[in-house]
Amino acid sequence: MAFHLDFGKKGEEIAAAFLEGKGYRILHRNWKVGAREIDLIARDGEYLVFAEVKTRQANTPIYPETAVDAVKRRHITSVAERFMEQYAAPFFDIRFDIVAITFQNETDYELLHFDDAF
Fold this sequence. Notes:
The chain is 31% helix and 39% strand. By secondary structure, it is α+β, with helices and mostly antiparallel strands. The chain has a 5-stranded mixed β-sheet with strand order 1-2-3-4-5, sandwiched between helices.
């Protein structure tokens, strides 16, 4: 598959590896409720983390993290609430993170992690 078609998936893989490197334990990838999903659900100590991964190419005029607007945050929050209802009884605190990845080319990228982003 061409780079421009699968770099979002590649970004999610990079983000998961990055978070694992920081000690997070990835619990779910692409957890869905209907048409809405959360890219990564992880545990970071006592926190259950819902992480949105945004990828862009360097020539895009906006930063990837700005794509997580109020509407997107509401969607993520509603999916997180459903997850909590089904699975998360032992967790006490939740957090919403954004992992923003800007690709310069197929192998070079910049990654920014915004923990407790909203």
